[in-house]
Amino acid sequence: MRIIGGKFKGRRFDPPADKWPTRPTTDFAKEALFNILNNRLDFEETKMLDLFGGTGNHCYEFISRGCTDATYVDKFPGCVQFVRKIAAQLKIEAYLKIFHMDVFRFMEYTSEQYDYIFAGPPYALPTIDTIPNRIFEKKLLRPDGLFVMEHNPEHEFVHHPNIVDVRNYGSTYFSFFEDKS
Predict the structure, then answer these.
(1) Helix, strand, coil: what percent of the chain each, to 5?
(2) CA-to-CA distance for 42 and 7, rounded, in angstroms?
(3) What is the spatial distance between Cα 63 and Cα 175, in angstroms, rounded to a whole number?
(4) What is the pTM of this model?
């Protein structure tokens, strides 16, 4: 895993491979996504949320580009421990809130709103198709915000009322949502 942009560009991290429950976004897909985000977001002004945060890679990319308000949520203890370790190595603890909890529970109880939300759930998660509706029902996205969900071709959101774009990079799909209410 490597950081592809910003002040930490080129830094590499090796998450433990033993029983690791994550599927990190490929560098190719991540670079394509961040090329899009570079034209849509002011990272320094963005309050971001990373659901199913895994290795924390998405948060590191945002903080590397100047974000000072990143929130990470994952329920797997090994992932959370790894993210705390990398945050300490990068000295970014002041910019990163880490929640060791179930994502659906977090969405149910948080009262925060975000400029940008990224969800990279396990592709086999039985409730993956409910995530966009939950984001909008709970009003987690600010009115001018952007929500991006990573998924595989087995899931399709083109008929969702808040969808604005879908991009695919091999077997990785990114669906882009905005609050259209």
Answers:
(1) 35, 25, 40
(2) 15
(3) 22
(4) 0.95
Q: Name the pLDDT band for 61 (thresholds 50, 70, 90).
A: very high
Phi/psi for 34 (5° steps) reads -70, -25
Number of domains in the chain: 1
User: CB of 15 within 8 A of CB of 1?
Assistant: yes
For Cα atoms 26, 30, 32, give the angle at the middle one, nearest 5 degrees. 120
Q: The domain containing residue 88 runs over which residues?
A: 28-37+44-177
Is 151 a domain residue?
A: yes
**Helix boundaries (H) for 65-172:** 77-90, 103-109, 131-137
Of 50, 56, 23, nearest in space to 170 by CA? 23
pLDDT for position 149: 97
Residue 16 within a domain: no
